User: What shape does this take?
Amino acid sequence: MAIAQGNVTHQLEGHLRAVVQPVQQPTGERTTCSSCGKSHPKSSKFCTGCGQPKSNVVQPIGTQAAPVFAHAHVPQAAGIPKELQVELGKLLVAVARERLFLYFHWSVFLGLHVVGFLLAYRMYEEFAGDEASKILVSLPPLFFLNLSAFFCLPLIKTTRFQITRLKEQLTYIHYRIEYRDIW
Assistant: This one.
């Protein structure tokens, strides 16, 4: 039995794949034993492996294939079901909407803080009086606007939770699409 020499080459995806190249031996000078499968010279009267008398039937020398290192591509079912497409579309729109809400809540939060600090600074600088009265005049807008900005934090937290929940649903839909042949 002849031994095959294998080349290992890289495919485009980076997986390894073995390429079989049989050993070049002149087939006219060798035969294969019918009982043990070993090859021996054509001129010998007995098999060099098992000692059986030479068979008159000449068998071609087989090649041993090297193992394949890449997984075979399994074709998926044709087309994605309509209900999965609709559900995926709804989830993508819902994630986009929740992200817009999150951006809006963050902009309101930061905007109220900036306006509160600017208004307090302006009142402090433009008020004509001593330091204590300037501080007392600038504190109400600072406290009112910045405390009202903190009411945006629960909305931000809720919106982030909703985005996380929708992403989990999207992952589930992607798995259902990827493995729809199994389900």
Q: What stands out?
A: The two ends are 45 Å apart (CA to CA).
